[in-house]
Amino acid sequence: MKKISIAIDGHSSTGKSTLARQLAKSLGYVYIDSGAMYRAVALYAMENGLIGETLDEAGLVGHLQALELGFKLNPETGRSEIQLNGENVEKQIRTIEVSRYVSEVAAIPEVREKLVRLQQAMGAEKGVVMDGRDIGTVVLPGAELKLFMTAAPETRAARRYKELLDRGESVTFEEVLRNVRHRDHLDSTRATSPLTRADDAIRLDNSDMGLKEQYERVRSLADRILNAKK
Ligand code: CDP
Predict the structure, then answer these.
(1) What is the enclosing helix (H) or strand (E) of 30?
(2) Is 5-219 a CATH 3.40.720.10 domain?
């Protein structure tokens, strides 16, 4: 059976990674979480004194060459998890603190250049599901199936708020909603590869859609493409 590439882009907290994981698992494909890579760079900047009153862009760019990023299977979770300079930072990158800075870090052209190059190398073979903001437009423009996911900001903030509470973070719903809106704005208005729907991406608003329904819809889209390829 021929393999395809699947690109999932969209606004923050739209459940891209949940859908991407389900698809990768059922198709036997590799899942790549491009957002985790931007989050890891933001974490690095925070831990190395590059974020004070403002983000030290030039300082961060100076460190980029020495920064090693990759994914490694964690046998305990069964998931491939982000590694920053050889250390598993999967947990540390999911905090609201990292969410606060990540979109500024992701707007730096040199950061994007490095990460896009890595992502393209990881996605060079078919049989990959990658999620992010610029996957269908920049990273894998040749992907056979492209999705653009969105939902009402309040719905997205409620989902993320629950996730953060479950992980034991103390945040307020308003803070999460503000962060979701702020990142939407920064991600959509930045100069280098802003978040935008690729012409050939299918729009999916999941404000009122359950996980199962969403998965089944997208899986049938993938099957149609795969059957036509046989
Ligand atoms: O999980 P959530 O949708 O909230 O975000 P994420 O996928 O973990 O991505 C975190 C941030 O990284 C986004 O808000 C973007 O600023 C940036 N990002 C990006 O610029 N390009 C990508 N391909 C992926 C993420």
Answers:
(1) strand 30-33
(2) no
Q: Which residues are registered as beta bridge partners of 12?
A: none
Q: Spell out the domain ranges in the chain.
A: 5-219
User: pLDDT confidence of 54, banded at 50, 70, 90?
Assistant: very high
pLDDT digits (tens, 9 = 90+) for 26-52: 999 999 999 999 999 999 999 999 998
Residue 76 CB neighbours (<10 A): 7
Would the CB of 193 count as within 6 Å of ligand 1?
no
Residue 34 Cβ contacting ligand 1 at under 6 Å: yes
**Rounded alpha-carbon distances, angstroms, from residue 192 to 39, 112, 116:** 17, 8, 12
Rg (the chain; Cα; Å): 17
Spatial neighbors of 64 by CB under 8 A, at least 6 apart, are: 110, 111, 114
Confidence (pLDDT) at 1: 78
133 lines ligand 1 (CB under 6 A): yes
Rounded Cα gap, residues 136 and 200, in angstroms: 9
Q: What are phi and psi of 10, to 5 degrees?
A: 155, -175
Q: Given the CA of residue 119, which atom of ligand 1 is nearest to it? A: 23
Alpha helices in 50-205 (DSSP H): 57-63, 96-105, 109-122, 153-166, 173-189
Q: Would you say the CB of residue 187 lies under 6 angstroms from ligand 1?
A: yes
Ligand 1 atom at minimum distance from 11 CA: 3
Assigned token pair, 126: 């078919």
Taking residues 6-23, report their average pLDDT: 95
Is residue 190 within 6 Å of ligand 1 at its C-beta? no
